[in-house]
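[retry 2/3] Membrane protein: previous attempt timed out, resubmitting with same input.
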Amino acid sequence: MQGTVDGFSYGLVTPLVAYFMACLGGALGLRCTTRSMVVAQSWRPGWLALGSAAIGSGIWTMHFVAMMGFTVRGTPIHYDRTMTFASLAVAIVMVGVGIFIVGYRGARGTALFTGGTITGLGVASMHYLGMASMSLDGKLEYNTLTVGISVAIAMAAATAALWAAGQVRGFLWSVGASLVMGLAVSGMHYTGMAALSVHLHGTSEPATGDSPASLLAPMLIGPLAFLLLAGVVVMFDPLMVMGKPTVVPVEPKPGIPAHTHVRHSARRLRFRPRRTVEHRGSLTPQNR
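[retry 2/3] Membrane protein: success.
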C-alpha cells in the first residue's frame, strides 16, 4: 500500500529553521576556512578542523530539523540513535577531508574539484544515512534519477562554498556566500526527499527505535551549543586576544639570509674636489 508522505506537517516552520541552521553552519565554516589561510601554519589545522565541525554540524542539524516535519500517514516514525549520530560523524569527517585539501592546496583547479566532490559526497552520505536510520512499518524506495540530481546539487554547493572560502575575504561577502550555501543544502535535502516513496506493509508490528521527540533535545542542544561556541571563537580570534599579529610570519629558511632594511639618509653626499698639493721648493738652509 502506498503511504502518504508529508514533509511540511508544521508548515514553513521546519524549513525556515532548517535553512537558518544550514546558513549558520556554513557561515562559521567559511569564516574558519578563510582565517586558516591568513594565519600562521601552526594555527591552520585548528581553524580547518573547527570549520569542518561547524559545517558538518550545521548540515546535520538542518537535516533533522527538517525531518521533524516529515510524517507518513498510517505509521509512526522512529529513529535508530546509533545510526543517527553516525551520520553526524560521516558529515564532519568527509567535509573535513575536503576542507583540508582546499586549505592546504588552495581553492582552485584540481584541489577545488577534489575537495568539492568529497565534501558534496559527504553531505549526500549524511542525508541518506540519516534517512536509513528511520524505522517504520513500510519500505523506503527512491527514484534513481532524482537521487542523482540531489547528489549533483550537493557537490555543486560544496564546490561553490569552498571556492568562496578561498576567494571571499569581506564579512558581507561571506554572509552572502553562506546564504547561497544554505539555500543549496536545503535544496539538496528536499530534492532527496522528493525522490522518496513509502510502501506500507500494513502489519501491526511496532517500529523500534527512538521517537523524534526524544531525539529533539540532544539534536538541538548539542550541535547548537557547539555552533554558538564556534561563533564566539570566530568573533574573538585567539590570536587577537593574545595580542599576536594575524599575518603569516616569514619562516626562516637555511641558507637564505634575512632581509635587512637599510636606512638611507635624505641628505645627499657632496663630493668635494680633491685639492692638489703644490710642491714648493725646500726651505732648507742649503737652498737659501
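[retry 2/3] Membrane protein: Residues 238-251, 258-269 have pLDDT under 50 and may be disordered.
[retry 2/3] clearing retry counter.
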